C-alpha cells in the first residue's frame, strides 16, 4: 500500500524591497490605493507587518517606491528624434503609464520628493526643449504646460471613475436637462454618447497635447 507523502511547504520568493513594492503595486492596481495597508501587504507576502519596515522605512517610502515603478514604464525616445515628436511620445507614454495605474496620478500630484524616475523624465523633457532652441523662460513655461496636461488629464479621468459604456448614465443626465436652457450642454453630452473614434484618430488627451505642441512650435522662432 502506498504511503502518503507529507505535503511540502510551498516555495516563496525571497523577500526584498523590490518584491515588497511589486506586491504593493498589485494590491493598489486591483483593489485601490486605499486598500493598501502594511498589515494587508504583510499577509499577502506571508510575513508580519513589522518585517516590512526592514525594506521600506514607512508607508510614505512605500508610496515613493510605487511611483518609481510607474515612472520606470515611461519610454524615452532617443535624442535623435525631432523635438516635437520626442515630447509627444514622452507625454503619451507618461499618460498611458498613469492610466494603467489609476491611483498613481493622485499620488504623483502629492509627491514632492526628487525620485530618480521623475528626474529622468524631467531631464529628458527639459533637455529636449532647450536643445530645440527654447529659452530657459520659455522652457519653464512649456514644461509646466505639458506636465500639467499629462498629470491633470490622468487625474481627472481617475476621479471621474466612469464606466466604459456611459450611454445609460448620459441618457439619464439628458432627461434632466431642459433643452431650451442648455442646448450646447446637451450637444456636448451627445458627443460623449457617440462610438469611439476610428483607430488612428487622436484621443481627447492627444488632441489637447497637440494643441500645446503646435503652440510651442509657433513660439520657436522667437524663443
Q: Explain this structure to me?
A:
- The chain has helices at 17-31, 38-45, 49-52, 59-72, 83-100, 104-110, 116-132, 136-160, 167-175, 183-192, 204-219.
- Helix 4 (59-72) crosses helix 7 (116-132), helix 6 (104-110) packs across helix 8 and helix 9 runs antiparallel to helix 10 (183-192).
- It is flat, with a radius of gyration of 23 Å.
- It contains eleven helices and no strands.
- With 223 residues, it is an all-alpha fold.
- It has two domains: 13-57, Orthogonal Bundle (Arc Repressor Mutant, subunit A); 74-161 and 193-222, Tetracycline Repressor, domain 2, CATH 1.10.357.10.
End-to-end gap: 87 Å
Order of helices and strands: HHHHHHHHHHH
Basic shape = flat
CATH superfamily of the largest domain: Tetracycline Repressor, domain 2
Query: What is the percentage of strand-forming residues?
Result: under 5%
Number of domains: 2
Mean pLDDT comes to 86
| Main sheet summary | none
Query: Helix tally?
Result: 11
- Stated plainly, the CATH topology of the largest domain is called Tetracycline Repressor, domain 2
CATH class of the largest domain: Mainly Alpha
> How much helix is in the residues?
55-70%
Q: Which structural category do the helix and sheet elements fall into?
A: mainly alpha
CATH architect. name of the largest domain: Orthogonal Bundle
* Rg, alpha carbons: 23 Å
Number of strands: 0
- Stretches with pLDDT under 50, minimum 5 residues: 1-11
Amino acid at each position: 500500500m502506498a504511503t502518503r507523502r507529507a505535503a511540502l511547504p510551498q516555495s516563496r520568493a525571497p523577500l526584498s524591497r523590490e518584491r515588497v513594492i511589486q506586491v504593493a503595486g498589485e494590491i493598489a492596481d486591483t483593489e485601490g490605493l486605499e486598500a493598501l495597508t502594511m498589515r494587508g501587504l504583510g499577509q499577502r507576502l506571508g510575513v508580519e507587518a513589522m518585517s516590512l519596515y526592514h525594506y521600506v522605512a514607512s508607508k510614505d517610502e512605500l508610496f515613493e517606491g510605487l511611483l518609481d515603478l510607474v515612472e520606470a514604464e515611461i519610454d524615452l525616445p532617443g535624442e535623435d528624434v525631432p523635438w516635437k515628436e520626442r515630447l509627444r511620445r514622452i507625454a503619451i507614454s507618461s499618460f498611458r503609464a498613469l492610466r494603467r495605474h489609476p491611483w498613481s496620478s493622485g499620488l504623483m500630484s502629492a509627491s514632492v520628493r526628487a525620485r530618480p524616475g521623475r528626474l529622468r523624465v524631467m531631464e529628458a523633457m527639459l533637455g529636449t526643449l532647450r536643445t530645440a532652441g527654447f529659452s530657459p523662460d520659455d522652457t519653464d513655461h512649456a514644461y509646466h504646460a505639458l506636465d500639467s496636461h499629462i498629470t491633470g488629464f490622468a487625474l481627472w479621468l481617475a476621479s471621474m471613475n466612469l464606466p466604459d459604456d456611459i450611454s445609460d448614465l448620459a441618457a439619464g443626465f439628458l432627461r434632466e436637462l431642459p433643452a431650451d436652457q442648455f442646448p450646447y450642454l446637451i450637444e456636448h453630452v451627445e458627443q460623449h454618447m457617440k462610438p469611439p473614434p476610428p483607430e488612428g484618430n487622436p484621443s481627447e488627451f492627444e488632441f489637447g497635447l497637440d494643441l500645446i505642441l503646435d503652440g510651442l512650435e509657433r513660439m520657436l522662432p522667437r524663443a
